[in-house]
Model the fold of this input.
Amino acid sequence: MRTFIERTGERTLGAIEELGYAFSLCIESLYWLLAGPFLQQPVRLSAVVAEMMKIGVLAVPVVLLLAFANGAMMAIQGLATLREFGAESQVVAGIAYSVTREFGVLIAAIVVAGRSGSAIAARIGSMQMSQEVDALRVMGVEPVRHLVAPILLAMLIMMPVLTMFANAAAIIGGGIYTSMTLSMPLAVFIEQCFDVLDWSDLAQGLYKALVFGTLIALIACANGFSVSGGAEGLGRFTTRSVVLSIAAIVVADMIFTYFLNR
Amino acid sequence: MPQAATVTASATPYAIEVEDLVSYYDSRRILDEVSLRVRPGEIMVVMGGSGSGKSTLLRHLLGLNRPAAGRVSLFGADISQASARELYQLRRRMGVSFQNGALFNSMTVEENVAFPLREHTRLDERTIRIMARMKLEVVNLAGFERLMPAQLSGGMIKRAALARALVMDPSLLFFDEPSAGLDPVVSADLDELILRLRDALRVTILVVTHELDSAFRIADRITVLDQGRILITGTVEEVRNSPSERVQNLLNRRSEEIDVDPEEYLRRLTD
Ligand SMILES: Nc1ncnc2c1ncn2[C@@H]1O[C@H](COP(=O)(O)OP(=O)(O)OP(=O)(O)O)[C@@H](O)[C@H]1O
Ligand SMILES: [Mg+2]
Done:
C-alpha cells in the first residue's frame, strides 16, 4: 500500500518535471525562432499565419460577444451599487479600469484557452499517437520548431490583439447600457474613458496577454506531447490542457494584479 | 540533395553498427545485448515473432529511444553522442517507413511526399511536385496525389509512406513491415523495388518483416530476434539451415510456447 505522503511526493515531483518540460519547450521555441533562419531551419511564416488564423481570427466573434456582455453586466452592477452612494457618474472610471487592467485580457485568455488550448493539445496528441511526431524527428525536422514555435509566436501576436478587441467591446457594452440609463451619449462615455485611462492601464492588460498566451501555448503543447494510452488518453490530456491553462491564467493573474496594483 | 558520404567520415566499414544494445520499457527488458552490423549497400532483414522487439530495435537505430547500455552508430557516428547538427545531417540521409505509415494526417498524399523536399531543399515548387509525383509513380500511387491519408487503404498508406521515405534519395533506408497487409502482387513489386534501389543506388536497407517469402527474396543477410535477443545473423542459406530449434520453429511458424512452464501459465491465468 502506498501512503498518502508517498503519493503526494510523487505528484509533486511529476508537477515539477512537467513545469521543467514546459519551460524547455519555451526555451527551445525561442531558440528556433531566433536561430532557425541562420541554420537553414526557419520557423515557417506560413505556419505562423495559419496558427494566427486558428488561434486569433476565428476567436474574434466569441471574444467580442463575451466581452460586450461582460461590459454591460459591469455597467448594470456598477450603476446599481453606485446609485446607493449617489455616485453613478463614477461608473465610467470603474468600467474603464477594470476592463483594461483585468477583464478584457481575462475574457480573451479564457476563450483562447477553451478553444485553442484543447485544439492544440488534441492536434499534437493525435500526431504523437500516430507517430507523426517521430516521423518528423527522423526526417530531421524538430517537432518543437515545426509545431510549437509557430503556436507560441502566433499566441504572442494574437493575444494582445484579442485583448484590445475585448477591451473595446466591453467598454462599448458598458457604454451602451450606461448611456441608456444615465442619458449620457455613448460618445461622451467613451471620451471619458479615454480621459481616465492611462497608457499604463492598457499596458497592464497587454503584459498579461503575453504571459497568458505563453502559458496557454506551452501547457497545450506539453499536454499534447505527453499523450499516451489511445483515444481515452487523448481525451484526458485535452481536457487537462484546458483546465490547467485556465487555472494557470487565474493564478498568474492574481500574482500580476497583486504586484501591479499595490 | 543526395550527397556522397560527407558527414563524419570515420573509418568504419559499416553503415549500421549496433553493439550490446540494451533497452527497457519501464522495468521490462525489451532488448538484451543486441549486436548487429550492416555493410553499405547491404539489405539486412530483421525477423522475429510479434513483440520480439523489432520495432524497438528500429527506434534505437533511428535515435528515437535512448539505449540503457550499448551503442548505435550510423556511418561511424555514435548517435547518442552526436551533436544536434550531426544528427540532423545523418537524418537527412535516412528514409524511414514506419509500421503504421505515420503519414501526416493533415496533408494530402502529395504534400506528405513533398514534405521532406520542402523542408530540406530550396527547389522550386514545380520541381518539388514533379519529384513527389515521380516517387508516387514508383510505388504505384499515381492518381492518388490529392487524397488525404484517411482516405487510403492500409496498403496504400504503406506505399505512400515508402514514397515519402524515398523522396530525398536516402543512402540508408528503414522499413518496418513493408509488406504486411499488402496483396502478394504488390508485395512482390515492393520487394523488386527494394532490390532495384539497392542495385541502382547502393542504398543500405534494413527491413523489419514477418513475411518469410519476402525476407528470403530480398535479404542479403537475415537476423532473427527472439524475446529481445538475437538468435542468429547470417545469409539466407545459413538461417535456413540453422540447427537451432527456435529458429526452425520461427521459420516453420510453429508455436513458441514449448518452454512455458505450465504452472506459471496457470498462475498467470488465475491471478
Ligand atoms: N511505448 C511502449 N511502452 C511500453 N512497452 C512497449 C512500448 N512499445 C513496445 N513495448 C513493448 O516492447 C515489446 C516489443 O515491442 P516491439 O514493438 O518492438 O515488437 P515487434 O517485434 O515490433 O512486434 P510486431 O511484430 O508485433 O510489430 C513488446 O512486448 C511491447 O509490449
Ligand atoms: Mg513492430
About this structure: Residues 117 and 168 of chain B are 7 Å apart (CA to CA). The interface with chain A takes residues 59, 62-64, 87-88, 91-92, 94, 96, 98, 100, 102-106, 115-116, 119-120 of chain B (CB under 8 Å).
